[in-house]
Specification:
CATH topology of the largest domain: D-Maltodextrin-Binding Protein, domain 2
Keywords: DNA-binding, Transcription, Transcription regulation
Distance between the termini: 64 Å
CATH class of the largest domain: Alpha Beta
Oligomer: single chain
Family: Belongs to the LysR transcriptional regulatory family.
Number of helices: 9
Protein name: LysR family transcriptional regulator
Pfam families: HTH_1 (PF00126), LysR_substrate (PF03466)
GO molecular function: DNA binding; DNA-binding transcription factor activity
Length: about 250
């Protein structure tokens, strides 16, 4: 079985269309379509219901999806293991990061990329904590950076730091949309922010206040340790070393 065909199959299943999958993989749409058709001929079964939009997996497609992901993950592990011998010079790494924490983990990821330029890091933005855990459990990502607690029997959770939350005095308005946080603060609205967003808001002129008593949240790395590639283990170590920005230097005003 052609591994590239499996990669294309998983991409179409995750993106819901050949067009989106081709764009994500940077391949020509006709080539991707031909590969999917070839895989279906090889397996003598249709994998997608093409009458639906977005494309839906048939029963056979659903049965193939998890094993295909595992094959690709195992292949990535093999490549990364070989790359580790020569200093992590090959492979790739998928990491899920909650959007509010993206600013805080960027230094660790940037340092990893400087040390291992041959290992691209693909950062996924899950919808919420539950979606992040699903990214790790189903093999789409090796690591997930999220707020704690996380309770799931299939994952290991390792704290890497904590963040204090700050508020706009006298406001009860909140937003979950990261791009709206700082502009909303500067426009006179309110929000609850932490870490890198607190630092950005203060630098932009917003007045932040601590809760009394302080309100802190734990941040941690979620993984399936038995499936971690050498690259993932290295980044996990760097995330622990760098921690997260808790903006502890902010003074109450």
């Amino acid at each position: 079985m052609d591994l590239r065909r499996l990669e294309y199959f998983v991409a179409v299943a995750e993106h819901g269309s050949v067009t989106a999958a081709a764009a994500a993989l940077h391949v020509a749409q006709p080539s991707l379509s031909q590969s999917i058709r070839a895989l279906e001929r090889e397996m003598a079964v249709e994998l997608f219901d093409r009458r639906q939009r977005p494309l839906a997996l048939t029963a056979a497609g659903k049965a193939l999806l998890d094993p295909a992901r595992k094959v690709l993950t195992d292949l990535a592990d093999a490549r990364a293991a070989v790359g580790c011998v020569v200093g992590l010079a090959a492979g790739w790494l998928d990491v899920a990061v909650l959007d509010p924490l993206a600013v805080d983990v960027a230094p660790a990821i940037a340092a990893f990329r400087r040390q291992h330029p041959g290992v691209p890091v693909r950062v996924h933005g899950p919808r919420d904590e539950d979606d992040l855990v699903r990214h790790v459990v189903d093999g789409r990502c090796e690591l997930g950076v999220t707020y704690l607690p996380v309770e799931h029997p299939a994952v290991r959770v390792e704290p890497i730091g904590r963040q204090e939350r700050y508020r706009i005095h006298g406001s009860d308005i909140r937003t979950r949309h990261s791009e709206a946080v700082v502009p909303l603060l500067l426009a006179g609205g309110g929000a609850v922010v932490a870490g890198g967003y607190a630092r950005r808001a203060a630098a932009a002129g917003a007045v932040l206040r601590r809760f009394d008593p302080p309100v802190c949240v734990q941040v941690g790395v979620v993984s399936q340790p038995q499936h971690l590639s050498p690259a993932a283990r290295r980044l996990e170590t760097m995330l622990r070393a760098y921690g997260v920005d808790d903006f502890s230097s902010l003074q109450s005003r």
